[in-house]
Amino acid sequence: MISRSPFGDVIEYTINATEEQQRLSEFVHNTRKTVVIQGLGFVGTAMAAAVARARDTHGNPLYNVIGIDLPDEMNYWKIARVNTGLPPVVSTDKSLDAAYAAAYHAGNLTATYSSFAYTLADIIVVDIHLDIKKARLGDARAYEFTLENYQEALRVVAERITNNTLILIETTVPPGTTENILKPMIERIGRERGLDTSTIHIAHSYERVMPGRDYLRSITDFYRVYAGTDKAACIAAREFLSSFINTRDFPLTELHSPTASEMSKVLENSFRAMNIAFMQEWTEFAEAAGVNLFDVIRAIRVRPTHRNIMSPGFGVGGYCLTKDSLLADWSYSSLFAPGKHLDMSLSAINTNDLMPTHTVRLLQRVFPDLRDKHITLFGVSYLNDVADTRYSPAELFYDLCTQAGARVQLHDPLVSYWTEKGLEVCTQFDDIRLLHHDAAVFAVRHSEYLQMTAEDIHAILPNVRLIIDAFDIISDSTAEALRSYGITLLGVGKGHWNAYLRST
Amino acid sequence: MISRSPFGDVIEYTINATEEQQRLSEFVHNTRKTVVIQGLGFVGTAMAAAVARARDTHGNPLYNVIGIDLPDEMNYWKIARVNTGLPPVVSTDKSLDAAYAAAYHAGNLTATYSSFAYTLADIIVVDIHLDIKKARLGDARAYEFTLENYQEALRVVAERITNNTLILIETTVPPGTTENILKPMIERIGRERGLDTSTIHIAHSYERVMPGRDYLRSITDFYRVYAGTDKAACIAAREFLSSFINTRDFPLTELHSPTASEMSKVLENSFRAMNIAFMQEWTEFAEAAGVNLFDVIRAIRVRPTHRNIMSPGFGVGGYCLTKDSLLADWSYSSLFAPGKHLDMSLSAINTNDLMPTHTVRLLQRVFPDLRDKHITLFGVSYLNDVADTRYSPAELFYDLCTQAGARVQLHDPLVSYWTEKGLEVCTQFDDIRLLHHDAAVFAVRHSEYLQMTAEDIHAILPNVRLIIDAFDIISDSTAEALRSYGITLLGVGKGHWNAYLRST
Question: ipTM, 2 decimals?
Answer without folding.
Answer: 0.96
